[in-house]
Write a structure and sequence with these properties.
The structure is a single chain. The protein is an alpha+beta fold. The chain folds into four domains: about 120 residues, Udp-n-acetylmuramoylalanyl-d-glutamate--2,6- Diaminopimelate Ligase, Chain: A, domain 1 (3-Layer(aba) Sandwich); about 140 residues, GAF domain (Beta-Lactamase); about 170 residues, Reverse transcriptase/Diguanylate cyclase domain (Alpha-Beta Plaits); about 80 residues, Arc Repressor Mutant, subunit A (Orthogonal Bundle), CATH 1.10.10. Helix content is about 45%, strand content about 20%. Helix 3 links the parallel strand 6 and strand 7. Helix 18 crosses helix 19. InterPro entries: CdaR-like_regulators, CdaR_GGDEF, PucR_C-HTH_dom, PucR_C-HTH_sf. It comes from Haloechinothrix salitolerans.
Length: about 525
């Protein structure tokens, strides 16, 4: 019985085992599963997965060190109640042994049996079955059709049709026969070979245009080769319908080819960690659960080159119920994946807590932050148009290597949380909206801590609610104008004397001294809540 650590984690999933630290990567061999007493690791041998039963968090550190010294491939430990397990992570790094977290609800006996089953069955095809992979490809085909404005078919290197977008019309004879026969008709394939189409898509990453041939019943097409390194995996065809293809069709098609390449690679037996597992690693990295150095190699990212995280979110509205929202979010992942792959080959995409995130590692070249922000705005605009729902993007700060990715993701979330109420803002970086972010977060703190609110400010807001008054907005405009009565009156569309009266009345109702800088500062913060 033998499997790599990566294969074991991929099969069990993060609901059973979470990767925290992997000093020697995920290609280390696991040959046996043993239960380890926290005070005695003598049963642990080289290449074992040691399950440390009876100790949580830092209490398991001695067992981790001992297991690592005896050559264990990995050690599995349940988290402490507080979750503050950094000493445990440090012990794993010192012992050069992988550290795996076990969710509290998982029974050790259950994990023991399942892990041994994986080791026993690892020789079988552990990847996705063809049906599941086909479902993913059909979803991608529909996404690519939306982005390009054409009719899509995805074929493998033997010209077999793997997936296609749904269509309300027949398009042309070539598409009809290909879909019905699940393979391109030989007479048409011979023509495409004669025209040099296949030679061009096999030998490079480029979009080839096939002109319409009305006499042969063939409409205009675009085609791109799908490649994994130097290996040609297949093609994506875009047939024009009643309307011209989208302006961004060629660029989107290049990105789509890179995404489809990952899907086609999943269908082939390979010793590499699968795409689904890579997504899990990326989600673990962005959530802060996984050690960046341990997953950098698996994600194909450098530990030093600049990296940034972008977050994308579909607006939640009363017109969209929960099931519709989940479908929109799933479609957003495909859309963002296509655009991200076109922008940077190294782009990584995952979904986490209802949002879609893009990690751009190895961020080199001109433009830097400005180029990333432009890309975020382009994707938000295009995705919003394709989904017919507002899509917004938040851009975190560029940091040194993927170790900065969790913080960059938190910053992207802060931006999204702040601009959510402003549908006119499609995308923003933290630097652009830092003042708004800080103000919103300060307001949130005040909401959570009623004891730090000034009752006089509360009384002023309550007075406006009870009598339908305009004291609060007037005072805020007055402060925005730095006490310039005429400017405040002009912005409100009232007479200056009205502003003077309302400001005096606000002081009387609340009892605040609006000339006192300290009272004015705190009152403004609290009034922004209302």
């Amino acid at each position: 019985m033998v499997a790599t650590l990566g294969q074991l984690l991929m099969q069990l999933g993060d609901s059973m085992l979470e990767l925290h630290v992997a000093p020697q990567g995920l290609d280390v061999e696991v040959r046996e599963v043993v239960i380890c007493d926290p005070d005695d690791a003598t049963d642990v041998r080289e290449h074992d997965l040691a399950l440390v039963v009876g100790a949580r968090g830092r209490q398991a550190a001695p067992a981790v060190l001992a297991a690592g010294q005896r050559g264990a491939a990995a050690v599995a430990v349940k988290a402490s109640a507080t979750g503050a397990d950094e000493p445990l992570h440090a012990a794993a790094r010192d012992a050069e042994v992988a550290l795996l977290g076990v969710p509290s609800e998982v029974r050790w006996s259950q994990l023991d049996v399942l892990a041994k089953d994986v080791l026993a069955d690892v020789g079988d095809d552990a990847g996705l079955d063809a049906g599941e992979a086909r479902t993913d490809l059909f979803g991608l085909a529909q996404t690519i059709a939306t982005v390009t404005g054409g009719h899509i078919s995805i074929e493998d290197s033997a010209n077999r049709v793997l997936a296609y977008s749904s269509t309300g019309d027949e398009v042309d004879e070539l598409r009809r026969l290909s879909i019905l026969g699940r393979q391109g008709p030989e007479q048409y394939l011979a023509l495409l070979r004669k025209w040099g189409v296949y030679e061009r898509v096999r030998t490079g990453e480029r979009v080839v245009r096939v002109e319409a041939r009305p006499e042969l019943g063939i409409v205009e097409r675009l085609v791109v080769g799908v490649h994994a390194g130097r290996r040609w995996l297949g093609t994506i065809w875009v047939a024009r319908g009643d309307k011209p293809l989208a302006n961004r069709a060629e660029r989107a098609l290049l990105g789509a080819a890179r995404v489809v390449a990952a899907q086609l690679a999943r269908r082939r037996p390979t010793p590499d960690v699968g795409v689904q597992f890579r997504d899990s690693l990326l989600a673990g990295l962005l959530s802060g659960r996984m050690d960046p150095a341990s997953v950098a190699g698996q994600l194909g990212a450098s530990g030093e080159a600049p990296a940034v995280v972008l977050g994308f979110s579909v607006a939640e509205t009363q017109q969209v119920d929960r099931s519709q929202l989940e479908l929109l979010r799933a479609e957003l992942i495909n859309l963002v994946s296509v655009h991200a792959a076109a922008f940077r080959r190294s782009a990584l995409v995952t979904a986490l807590e209802g949002r879609t995130y893009v990690l751009l590692p190895e961020l080199t070249g001109r433009g830097g932050a400005n180029a990333v922000l432009r890309f975020a705005k382009e994707v938000a605009t295009a995705a919003g148009k394709d989904l017919r729902m507002p899509v917004q993007a938040g851009v975190g700060s560029i940091g040194p290597g993927i170790a900065a990715a969790p913080e960059s993701r938190r910053e992207a979330d802060r931006v999204l949380d702040t601009i959510a109420a402003d549908r006119a803002t499609l995308a923003a970086s933290l630097d652009e909206v830092r003042a708004e972010v800080l103000l919103a977060e300060t307001a949130a703190l005040l909401r959570e801590q009623p004891s730090v609110r000034d009752p006089r400010v509360t009384a002023l807001a309550e007075h406006d609610r009870r009598y339908g008054g305009q004291l609060v907005p007037t005072v805020l405009r007055y402060w925005d104008a730095f006490g310039d009565v005429r400017a405040a009156a002009e912005s409100l569309g009232v007479h200056p004397n009205t502003v003077r009266y309302r400001v005096r009345r606000a002081a009387e109702v609340s009892g605040l001294d609006l000339a006192d800088p300290k009272q004015r500062l705190f009152a403004e913060l609290q009034l922004r809540l209302t």
